[in-house]
Records
---
Amino acid sequence: MKNTASFITLSIALLGVAGCLQNTDNQANASKQIWPKLPSVVPKDPAIEEKVAALVGSMTLEQKVAQMIQPEIRDVSVEDMRRYGFGSYLNGGGAFPNNDKHATPADWITLAEQMYQASMDDSLDGISIPTMWGTDAVHGHNNVIGATLFPHNIGLGAANNPKLIEQIAAITAREVMVTGIDWVFAPTVAVVRDDRWGRSYEGYSEDPEIVGKYAAAIVSGLQGRPGDEFLADNRVISTVKHFVGDGGTVGGDDQGNNIDSEQDLFKIHAQGYVQGLGAGAQSVMASFNSWHGEKIHGNKYLLTDVLKQQMGFDGFVVGDWNGHGQVAGCSNESCSQSINAGLDIFMVPTKAWKPLLENTIAQVKSGEISEARINDAVSRILRVKFRAGLFNKPSPANRALSGKTELIGHPEHRAVARQAVRESLVLLKNNRQLLPLSPNLNVLVAGDGADNIGKQSGGWTITWQGTGNQNEDFPGGSSIYDGIKQVVSQNGGNVQLSADGSYQAKPDVAIVVFGEDPYAEGNGDLDNLDYQRGDAKDLALLQKLRAQGIPVVSVFITGRPLWVNPELNASDAFVVAWLLGSEGNGVADVLFRKANGDINHDFKGKLSFSWPASPDDTQLNVNDSDYAPLFAYGYGLTYQDDVQLDKLSENASLQSTKQQSLAVMHGSVKSPWSLSLYADGKTLAMDSNTASLNSLNVRTTDRYIQEDSREITFKNRNVAKVQIGHAFPNDMRQYSELGSTLTFDIKLNSKLQASTKVGVNCDASCSQGIALTNLLSEEDLGVWKTVSIATNCFTQDTDNMAKVYSPFAIASRGPLSITLSNILFNNNSDETEPYTCDK
């Protein structure tokens, strides 16, 4: 029997191995059938390959791994660079030399020079390999005060002018090179399929064809064309990102899950890589998103089998901001899985770079990572450095363009950006051909976006989210109002600027500039496309002016198509300006005639994203079988079109996106949230079944099934809080409507405390929360009770439910023990009488 059992066991094992081999063969066959073998536009240079091999052969393991570590300037010093010799470093959004937002180009050059010299100093690490500085120059050199800022990608997609795009990229490269930086994390080639995604404006189009054309143009402009100024003194290394599928996540969730078939992954989401790599891109950034539940940073099939082997990419793959830490079984400080999958460079901001370096070295020594994989990664990094001439170029402070600060925001560069603004504007409505306007009118310029360069530029503008900027932060730039004032004043007209629409003399026309406030990844995600839902203050301004008999021209600043039917109805003309950058004067070039009455510049922009007919048209893409947009892909009026737009429906039905309930904690805390403890000025994330922080303790406990509840114990009279939250906000306005509730099950394990409060988005003491004594009594001691609170109790601030960082928190200033389970938001719940704040 033992022999028989052994035979059966061996047979099963062999079948399992055969199945794995067959699965591997099937994947290999699939990659060959779906993914192309790209022509080598930058063929391997035998001389470079010989240098790479010799250098790798002379390096220690520690030196090799250091080439694969990319720290961030806020968390790495020049001495760290001298000691370890990192292969690269970066400045993230909102990071500046000396931590100074107003750092001058000279400050950037100084840091670049110091880091370079430290990397070349072999006194501590024993080797001289030039480091690289990478930066997110995604619409111009957008981290540097005074740089030329171009329209974000969504606007450039509407312009649909690849030659202009290549010119923009070349200008960006020049301004970047002035500051001594070698490498740009652009272009983003996401094909956006759900406009709720907060990075929609980083995509050129919902159409893979435009994205592919633009990828090739941007790469060519940044790097130069192979054989023609390729990686010359006025060019930078480019990065096509984020590989792959980031624009197709379920629900448009940033860093979410793409569940497209492999064929669609290629056909829709990979076209930017086909053409970007075909133009010679030397780096690819791995994406935060998952594909069918597996994080791309740990997906060997996509990073190695597809990208490197089948498509033939011989540059390097860099991670995104601690993206390796999201791979199953990994942390920011340790992730052999990513290296084994094909990641060549860890992007590791914060001080996690040091344990990550040490752990990776240990994993190679233990055999968890093969030295052959390390050698491959380092060879790829060095190959690009040799191709870019970094071993031969002077140091950053002595390069051809370094220090030529007159190129930062040069008038010729701004002229190209102004042209891009003109060509990206899309005219959706022009009833009775109100536009173009005569330049000698009495013009009222209204709206909070009229004289606001920061708002018109959007996210990734000086700061990461694009917030906290003033017009003074854009020397040489112009607001939309600046351009209007110049044109009208020069032609005998009169301009009044009033954000709220008030005026002294009744105007002949009102130009109202309004739209989305700046945001970047994470913070920009929405749950539907209704503009200013619940707080339509811009609509009120339009309606006020129309009611006074004033013709209204709306200029809409936005990073995506939004449902604005009421705003369209309240406008005589409606222009989509997207996020146009620093040259707002380009808008007036198109809105106004010349002094002799001729058209100055006509509208050229056409929608590269379909425009929604309802707020829940969130996945609306050309060629869909049920395609029914308000304005179709490619729509855009010109001054030759006499089209009257009839009144549109203002019924904001949200049936398809309105969830009846949203679980915050059901058994486990639900993604994207996590549970944290706050006590005595410290914070602790709960990452196991118990967590203690001074006067506060949380542990999992059983109610119906194993560990489906959380027992919370506040031990003394110091204020403490348990919060379920996330670094990025969720748009939860659908749960702020009448009848919506926050509902949870709670059991009192000790006497009630008057100081205990429950809240949403609440501070350390939940001072604006609901007292637990309003929800429970001493009679509830020891028994489970379901509590419902009307969510309008938490919406005193109109933006509260639009940006929910923490959907549930409980704080106490006295000893208390409770157990919680089943925390959720309900729409129109009638099971439990809710607490309504007026009791």
Note: The chain has a mean pLDDT of 92.
---
Amino acid sequence: MRAIILAAGLGRRMLPLTRDTHKTLLQVGDRTIIDRLIGSLEENGVTTVTVVTGYLHEQLERHLLEHHPHLDISFVRNLRFDETNNIYSLALAFEQIDIDDDLLLLESDLIFEPAVMRRLIECDRPNVALVDRYRMGLDGTVVTVSGSDVITQVIPASLQDAAFDFTDKFKTLNLYRFSAEFCRDVFSKLLRYYTQNFDNQCYYELILGMLVYMGQARIHAEQLDGETWAEVDDPNDLENADYLFAPDRRRRHLESSWGGYWNHELLDFAFIRNMHFPPDSLVSQMRAYLPRLMENYGSAQSVLDRKLAHHLLCRPEHVVLLNGAAQFFPTLRTAFAGARVLVPSPTFGEYPRAFPGASVYDDRGTFDPDAVARAARDHDLLVVVNPNNPTGTTARTADVVAVLDRLRGSGTTVVVDESFIDFSDEPSLVPLLEREPRDGVVVLKSLSKTLGVPGLRIGYVFSTDPAWTARVRDDLPVWNMNSVAEHYVESLLKYPSELVSSFERTKLDRDLFAEELRVLPAVTAVHPSGGNFLLVELGPDAAAVATLEQRLLVEEEILVKNVSAKFPGDRRLWRLAVRSVGENRRLCRCLHRLAPVPEEVVSR
């Protein structure tokens, strides 16, 4: 069996990485792309390889001859690589090799585990294409498959219009095995004829599609079943491939990116969102509106504030809709630069980043209004996070009001962050302040997590102090919110009962999750929480906890957030987002199976 690897192209989408380096010589993990391809062939007993080269051909050919001298490697050069496409490269290969054995056809921008190639070689059909279920992030040619696993239609990207339905389609891996007879008598002849007389700048899949359509080719679709593979067309693909094939670096990838996880099959217990909202009907509406929303600018800030005020049942002049609550922090930092600031400890990173020299009051699981008010009297700014993140500690709203009362007239501004208040049993300050206005009080809220759409970046500042709302508005650009997020906000008025129900369901899920975590031998404590997350304490062995986190990520594709560094002493703490009941139970099962049992538990 001979393999043909098409590697002539410039790799324009990979620029600037391919300006001086051949695309296949880029590293994924500790190996180049081409070495991974050759290694998978060799591991499956394929030692005769023809490589079609073109761009930087000397660089690639020298690498292959130096690193794989024991293999039978030959080269076909496409000197017109900058003006032709892979149809021309394959036609050249067919012209210059003897087709006396079955052929494996590989694109050079693929990375896969050896089991993928094994599936192709061991399939008992003469002509085989490897396919996988279409998923987000893939592009290029897709196929339809019959009930008997035969390809019935080959659809290149050029025929996938705006209304194209991918739900029943399969993505080709551009990994094929063809019989010598098919290549010699059918495929190569039509390929050569079309290239010479019609078009040498298209893809060879066009010819396969013609043969399938005319009934001249019967190509079996061998569907993958969870095997790992990646197509590397651009630098983003390269990053994603490195995540897949260098598992020891996965946590570094995730922690440095702070999001963008849609390219990974990841069960994320680190970032927090409402799992019961939006309802399916709202998602369907957003999907239908998306083309129009993408064509339109968002509205002026006054319109945005009015739309949110309808949802909050407050006056528009009291609220400022933000592109995520984080948008408030530059204003807050500027307003209190060099001032005396008091924040809870621990709390999430925005406040320590904004005020690295701030004084702190300890969160030990309860909120003491007397102690907080006393500590705040000689400060310019007091921050109350209710419920606090990552502890979940929840203050009674009446106690927060008591602090406001004791600080009235002191000159201390109070920012109350209520990003998770809806998941507690405490009411928001917003209705109270709407009835009884107060100067020097600002309520901040991240809505993205509450509304289940962290990717849309929605938050707000509420204050009955006109100086504060004016200050925030002065710092905003003319177009402060994208049209997709704005439409989502205006749609909330249609789903009030569904939103309230989502909070109640989340509370039940949180309480059940806490019960299931508490009985695990590796868990020493689950702290009470008023948010849609739980603070979980584990055994004292730091190395064991680090190993557990790595095994969860690599073996189970589960990400957890370690918050130990936020707490004094030598404690091992995770903050776990509350996800669906099934996902929460999956994490518990994995912890029960993977976590070492502490010695004190064994001794009992």
Note: The first helix runs from residue 33 to 43.
---
Amino acid sequence: MITAPPDWIRAQRALAALAIDPAGLGGMVIRARPGPVRQRLEQALETLPLPLRRVHPRLDDIQLFGGLDVAASLAGRGLVRQVGLADHAAALVMPMAERVPPGLAARLAGLLDGDRGHCLVLLDEGADPDETAPQVLTDRLAFHLDLSEIRAGDALLRLPAPADLDAARARLPRVEVPDDHLAQLVHLAARFGIHGLRTPLLALRCARALAALDLHDRATGDHLREAAELVLPSRATQVPEAPDEDDSPDQPQQQESEAQGDGTSMQDIPDELLVEAIAACLPPDLLTRLDRGGKARGGGQGFGAGGKRKGNRRGRPLPSRPGRPDGRARIDVVATLRAAAPWQPLRRAAMPGTTRLVVHPGDLRLRQTEEHSDRLVILAVDSSGSAALARMAEAKGAVELLLAQAYTKRDLVALVTFRDTHADVPLPPTRSLVQAKRRIAALPGGGGTPLAAGLRAVHDLALQGLRNGQSPCLALLTDGRGNIALDGSPGRTAAAADARDMARLWQRLGLPAIVIDTANRPGAEGAELAAWLGARYLALPRADARRISAAADAALSR
């Protein structure tokens, strides 16, 4: 007899629970590449008591919430409303869920929170471990299934009969849950580093659905254990430690609880057995995932002379494009009339007695604009050590050269220096060459190398620039050999750890950067720092102002 893999058994059990209470459980995430295994599970979604609606990651607001049907309204004599997916309860199936933009994810999360009877099935096709569906959606879905390691020959579906599912749905409102179940689930979630009550509540709903499926009017400890195994492992952020002996409940209290219970008390299953059962379902690479810390996708990209953003609200007008209104785009009335005008004789001939303007959906034109954001070049200079004076002179010259190009490229330039135990911003973002010369005329040098403090100042400056609609980028001049930690204490080990943490904050922003190693004998420190930042590395031990300016501009303009 062939035994199905445990992951596939859990997937079938989760699908059966979802078929009983789709709105209460929210839905599921299925992580698998397209293939026969995922296809079989998709076909099994027909057991849900909701109509299936396949949607795209670029779903617009009109399709989701409905709205004015412009073409039909123009063709008729009144306003015609287009019905959206939110108007009727349905099971929304989203392929390529890892590509869902944040705006649509927020709207779908609001739809699930609105208790309109919808459920969502996300088909996560990410090839990289960091490519995942938006967390704002996955947190609201009870089940996370990873089918990537299941072979097609082992994926045999064995689901309850339709009559059994109908009977379980009818029994679900009558299923009771012992009072200690929710407290136990909250305690288990805390042991695995899961914060918030949404996860315990989803596990509680799952336990009720499983009890209804087993034709029970009261959820038992076994139902709770199975629900915890299905809901908690994918959300765990830590491996629980064994409790101290002092934390165990007193034996008399345990015996009293068992005596008062009716066989369904949570004392029937000790905490440690539940923890071990859930820990056995944890993903094997949990610690690796946590160590990555949610690295941003895409890495650093060059912005050139600022970023370009297309929209329909503001910015430089672009030629209008054909399209259908989606609730965000604006109709270009003049361009629409210009597209419809040549066809009026033929359309009126086909509609005798019509004197009004006849507009078809293909005539609609939507406005387009392009908005340019200013580039903010942050020049961070290590002004410590014996070579500080030479580097400061080069930095001053590089700032002047970059400012000379600011008027043509719409760049802003800022200067960050770090020495002793702190970092300074002697030159805030500016295009003023006169102000720059005045600010950097007499900058001090020498002392320790607080590399982490300099990176923190750079990160804060970048966040401020992003809030102002700018495109920050970094040119860092240093040898990468920090020796002062963030708290001001000396020590290369602590300084390197703090610098690594601060550099990864920049890397998560996904902004371009270049590390210019100015050491007389470049070593591994500068290249390692560039890797932490996700930046390009350039060794210029004999750098002058012009070479620094040219290297920074070339690297950051890609």
Note: The chain has a mean pLDDT of 78.
